[in-house]
Amino acid sequence: MKYLTTIGLEVHVQLRTRSKMFCACGTGFGAPPNTQVCPVCLGYPGAMPVMNEEAIRLTVMTGLALGCAIPAFSKFDRKSYFYPDMPKNYQISQYDCPLCDGGAVEFESGGQGRRVRMVRIHLEEDVAKNMHFPSFSGVDFNRAGVPLMEIVTQPDMGSPEEAMDFLLALKQTLSYLGVSDCNLEEGNVRCDVNCSVRPDGQEELGTKTEIKNLNTFKGVFHALRHELDRQVDVLESGGRVTQETRRWDADQGVTYSMRSKEDAHDYRYFPEPDLMPVELDAATVGEWRAAIPELPGARRARLTAEYGIPGYAAGVIAADRAVADYFEAAARASKNAKAVSNWVMTEMLRLLGERGMTIGNARVTPGALARLVSLVDSGVVSSTAAKDVFAAMFESGGDPDALVREKGLAQVSDASEIEAIVDRAMEENPKSVADFMQGKSAAAKFLVGQVMRLSRGKANPKLVNEILERKLGAE
């Protein structure tokens, strides 16, 4: 039997603020446990929360970028539950009056345009981190109270691949907006996954399960693949899927049951009495809307139209705002934007990936890259030698013209000098010349290689081919 898949996500995003949501404690990652805490985030009796306005701004900007409606009135609520990571025994969150309603994320998946609708975006405080050791467990409250934006989607996704593509597109948008560091290793983005299966032709959705606290996109993908297969196996064996919360064990590659799935009434939501409602006027929202930068989709289209680079290249470059900024700076300084895009996508991104660096740390300036492209285009240096120049600039910076002189990499374009090298290559390889005369065209490529070897890679390849073709034709 064929089964249809339904997937919805709840994406939790730590916002880029200097202080926590309701107190002045810092939000920096990596501090010793329980050193960024105070009576508010430790839940001491009588401690009063004070709202972080910057977190409100970043959340609303996200909603505006994703096409959400921004209500003039929203409020915070208490979400009651008992767990070691929440010392107050309730979390300050939002329930029926969130900061952002609706909206959608548009992206490509499997070569097709997709649109995943959102239910809402709301703001809450993050919880502490439970730490488990061989003989004991502990709680680090440094994370408790960090502003956490929750993006809740409609169940519009139909495969693990589509969910992965959605998350990548969402992360790009969040990074462009600058609302979060989006560092998955530091837990800036975490996901809860709701999924179900149903027989093809059945209109009613199947019973859903929730997989909690997935902190990598690959984890989301693999957890979904396993859980969806598990649900199909349950149905195929005549069983019933139970509505429950499950956890993903990445080492074992399986999900396992944690508890029965809670409904909203289980949390006993009620308005937070220690915080005033959030009331936003049109002028403030308009000011925040005006601050939204060009987003990834629009930038991809513009890079293709303005610089004439292929759509694939534009997609790779626009995926990271800093990379796109770098490319545009280099392309404006160059007369060959396509060549610049090739250098960025191949050599630059390869070396950055190997070193674990970001383009902001690159020693190759946009102007230096543009000049290197010019040296190749004008025949001063070969494309092969240019890679050596680029590698040297990547290590230590510097001027490409000076590096070409220092390393003796200037391309030989003197026809008489190249002709002498061609003659020598033909004299040293008479069998290859004879093979070519007998119709073996590959022999010509071998001779070209010999010329480049004798010239130490400096001979102008175009002239080499022209002179060799003329001389072989005269044989």
Q: In terms of quaternary structure, what is this?
A: single chain
Radius of gyration: 30 Å
Largest sheet: 9 strands, mixed
With helices defined by DSSP (H or I, 4 residues minimum), what is the helix count? Answer: 15
Shape: elongated
Residue share in helix: 40-55%
> What percentage of amino acids are in beta strands?
15-25%
What's the average pLDDT? 92
- Kindly give the count of domains: 3
Alpha carbon gap, first and last residue: 71 Å
Descriptive notes:
The protein is of the alpha+beta class. It has three domains: 3-287, no CATH class; 296-407, no CATH class; 415-474, Arc Repressor Mutant, subunit A. It has 15 helices and 16 strands. The chain has helices at 53-65, 160-177, 217-236, 282-290, 296-307, 311-318, 321-332, 337-355, 366-377, 383-396, 400-407, 415-428, 430-437, 442-454, 461-474; strands spanning 3-14, 73-74, 77-80, 90-93, 100-101, 104-109, 112-125, 129-132, 137-140, 147-153, 189-199, 209-214, 244-249, 254-260, 270-271, 278-279. The longest helix has 20 residues, at 217-236. The model has no long low-confidence stretch (mean pLDDT 92).
